[in-house]
Amino acid sequence: MARPLRIEYPDAFYHVTGRGNERHDIFRNVGDRRKFLSCLQSSNERYLAVIHAYCLMTNHYHLLLQTPLGNLSQVMHHINQAYANYFNVKRKRVGHLFQGRFQAVLVEADSYATELSRYIHLNPVRADMVALPEDYPWSSFHGYLDPADCPAWLTTSFILGYFCDRAAYRKFVHEMMEKKVASPLGNADHFGILGREKFVQEILEEHVWERKMDRDLPTVRGGDRNLSPELIHSVAAEVFSSEPGTARKAAIFISHCYSGLSLKEIGAYFELSLSGVTQSSKRFRMRVEREMILREKVELVERRLALAL
């Protein structure tokens, strides 16, 4: 399977997560957290990254950021590399500090920015580290409540612009403290896009399907409109000849991720709702990532489809 495609363009919003390798702690004391915040500051100064929200946990961090220059990879390489170098030198250690590449979800800001900021600020509460989000010193929540606590490199105006005042934002965050609400990130598309269907389709058409020759995408993964659900299903049925149920799931997965077909078109063929297509694709992808034999068969389907184009 190809590594996840990184979609970058000017003024894009992202929810970014970085986790410690093998779930090890990446922040061990106050000095570590202050150093990481200084990395956020320098990313703002050097690469014009706009930091809208952050939360430093113990073995991971959350960021909501915007890239006016369309340079997410550059921004995150700077942050993670600078911090990892500091951490390793300080502890006289070698090896990877973070678990692979950072995880980034492209976000339709107008629809999800406020929800994601709340999700980020409530992380310490949901982890039973504090009773109230304002009790946690290592998140951007303080900057939202009091401008005196807001560093120059933290931007709160965009999200606060959706509320009449800071007290209203505090109430908005507190409203969900006692409720068990699924993370909004669970609604992200396979490509890591969180937004309304129209937004997702526009991003795919402009930034994915046009990149057919990108090294991250084999030919069949370029979103070729010549790939019909009938063709995908028939090729999957040949590869999974003794597993018709798996063939159907594989066909839905490939149609959703690589065909360029809309959710409506895929759903019409497989007799699924739009959310049914998305959920089926997500579940199958989790299996593909876990099961090597299944992954090899899916790649065989993709190769045969590429030859058929």
TrEMBL record:
| A GO MF term | sequence-specific DNA binding
- Superkingdom classification of source: Bacteria
The Transposase IS200-like domain is annotated at 9-123
Q: Which Gene3D superfamilies match?
A: 1.10.1750.10, Transposase IS200-like
Question: Which GO biological-process labels does this protein carry?
Answer: DNA transposition
Name the InterPro entries for this protein: Transposase_17 (IPR002686), Transposase_17_sf (IPR036515), Trp_repressor/repl_initiator (IPR010921)
Note the coiled coil stretches, chain numbering.
none
PANTHER family according to UniProt: TRANSPOSASE IS200-LIKE DOMAIN-CONTAINING PROTEIN (PTHR34322:SF2), TRANSPOSASE, Y1_TNP DOMAIN-CONTAINING (PTHR34322)
**Protein name from the UniProt record:** Transposase
Q: Which organism is it from?
A: Geomesophilobacter sediminis
Taxonomy-wise, where does this protein's organism fall, top ranks first?
Bacteria, Pseudomonadati, Thermodesulfobacteriota, Desulfuromonadia, Geobacterales
